[in-house]
């Protein structure tokens, strides 16, 4: 991953079109390396999650060019690379597995991480997940326990339990979630390890039950009810 990290570090310090255009070869090399890694990651996840067997790299990765239309930040390029591997591809609305590289050259630690689950689900999907937890939270809690080394991401959680769910419930913290994600940080040593792919696949496999459980809720929400 060194060529990917090196490019992202330089880009973060030179986030402008002139620099990017003059370093296009470096970008292409980094993109090719990340694309190859993602292709292997998809194939590896498909061994334990059959719902993603037909995905391509293009289904799971993102353009480096930022959408500047509604952003006060006018820097033109993203300074990270990520791949979201889920049934139907990144825009499907289904839960999946996300791998993210983002070096921080001005800090001592980088923002590399893995995540598994749902980020910014639609209101119908979020309600379906909450209703399943309300009916029986044990499968959800059990799938979290199986993902040893991962933690629930409480970023963006509501301050209060939403209407229709009890604030006195022992699972009120789950009802407040707006994203249903398990997260695991990766330091530079982890990313540079020669066994990165093997290690990432091993970690994602721990979260398969969690992802599959969420996707049952997603499927219910997206299926027209008679």
Main sheet record: 5 strands, antiparallel
Biggest sheet strand order reads: 1-2-3-5-4
So what's the overall shape?
globular
Low-confidence stretches: none
Order of helices and strands: HHHHEEEHHEHEHHH
Strand content: 5-15%
β-strand number: 5
- The separation of the N and C termini measures 50 Å
> How much is the radius of gyration in Å?
19 Å
Oligomer: single chain
Helicity, as a percent range: 40-55%
Short description:
This protein is an alpha+beta fold. It has helices spanning 2-13, 17-22, 24-46, 57-60, 123-135, 138-146, 172-175, 188-192, 196-206, 208-222, and strands at residues 81-85, 96-101, 112-118, 151-152, 180-186.
């Amino acid at each position: 991953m060194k060529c990917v990290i090196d490019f992202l570090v330089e880009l973060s310090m030179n986030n402008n079109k002139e620099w990017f255009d003059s370093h296009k070869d470096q970008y292409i090399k980094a993109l090719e390396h990340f694309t190859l890694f993602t292709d292997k990651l998809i194939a590896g996840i498909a061994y334990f999650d059959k719902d993603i067997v037909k995905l391509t790299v293009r289904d799971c990765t993102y353009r480096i060019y930022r959408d500047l239309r509604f952003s006060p930040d006018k820097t033109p390029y993203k300074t990270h690379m990520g791949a979201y591997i889920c049934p139907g591809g990144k825009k499907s609305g289904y839960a999946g597995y996300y791998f993210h590289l983002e070096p921080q050259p001005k800090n001592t630690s980088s923002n590399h991480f893995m995540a598994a689950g749902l980020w910014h689900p639609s209101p119908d999907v979020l309600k379906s997940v909450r209703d399943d937890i309300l009916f029986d939270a044990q499968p959800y809690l059990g799938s979290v326990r199986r993902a040893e080394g991962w933690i629930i991401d409480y970023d963006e959680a509501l301050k209060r339990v939403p209407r229709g769910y009890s604030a006195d419930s022992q699972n009120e913290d789950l009802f407040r979630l707006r994203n249903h994600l398990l997260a695991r940080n990766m330091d530079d040593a982890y990313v540079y390890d020669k066994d990165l792919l093997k290690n990432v696949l091993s970690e994602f496999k721990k979260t398969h039950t969690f992802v599959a459980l969420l996707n049952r809720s997603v499927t219910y929400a997206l299926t027209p009810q008679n």
